[in-house]
Design brief:
Elements: E1 4-7, E2 10-12, E3 18-24, E4 30-39, E5 46-51, E6 57-59, E7 67-72, E8 77-82, E9 91-100, E10 108-111, E11 115-119
Parallel strand pairs: 2-11
Antiparallel strand pairs: 1-3, 3-8, 4-5, 4-9, 5-6, 7-8, 9-10, 9-11
Amino acid sequence: QVQLVESGGGLVQPGGSLRLSCAASRSIFSIGFMGWYRQAPGKQRELVAAITSGGSTNYADSVKGRFTISRDNAKNTVYLQMNMLKPEDTAVYYCNADIRVNSYSGYRDYWGQGTQVTVSS
């Protein structure tokens, strides 16, 4: 059973930084698409940043220039570096990945448990 375990959330002042991490709980065969989503109370979950297996990235307009998504395939981990944080970035952040757990299985979609990011003075 593979789980995506998130860490790095917390309370930070406006203008501060956080780095979120999301790692597979056990050894897996390969990871394709990886992304970060967020959901604020009363709002729909939205895609914040995504990275393909080839390293191509996409960002929501609201975070461009401030957030950076990256991956470390050797560690089965995806990161979200969040700089110049604003109160409107406050949300629960979820990681997402397409994972092959072994060589004879296809890709399946997995979600992290969510980590709270609060930006407040």
